[in-house]
Amino acid sequence: MTHEYLRTVEGYRLAYTELKRITRQSLEHSFLPGQSLWVATKGSFRPVAVCTSELAGRPSQACSEFLAANERAREQRRLESEFTKFEKKY
Predict the structure, then answer these.
(1) How many domains does the structure of the chain reveal?
(2) Cα distances (angstroms) measured from residue 4 to each of 23, 44, 57, 64
(3) For the whole model, what pTM was predicted?
């Protein structure tokens, strides 16, 4: 998958923000079971109410329960965590 992202950047000159949006959308439209972490994906990505303030930090009890019940949301939150770690390097 890394090679495809590299080809996309080199061939289409997409910005990091656009790659990030594409990656988020790929999970949004995946076949993972459960609800999405996002209530809105057009323009900007807004998380569900129970997880609004927990994307970067430790999730609240309500958010933890939501994530435990929804594999898709769990993977989306994991992706956000990986984005955060990556972005701290630069």
Answers:
(1) 1
(2) 12, 24, 30, 33
(3) 0.88
Structural contact between residues 11 and 1, judged by C-beta atoms closer than 8 angstroms: no
For residue 89, which amino acid is it?
K
Q: Work out the percent of the chain whose per-residue pLDDT is above 70.
A: 98
Overall size of the chain counted in residues: 90
Q: What DSSP element (H or E) covers 80?
A: helix 71-88
pLDDT digits (tens, 9 = 90+) for 2-30: 888 888 889 998 899 999 999 999 999 99
Which range marks the domain in which residue 72 is found?
2-88
Report CA-CA distances (Å) from 28 to 12, 24, 54, 60, 61: 23, 6, 19, 22, 23
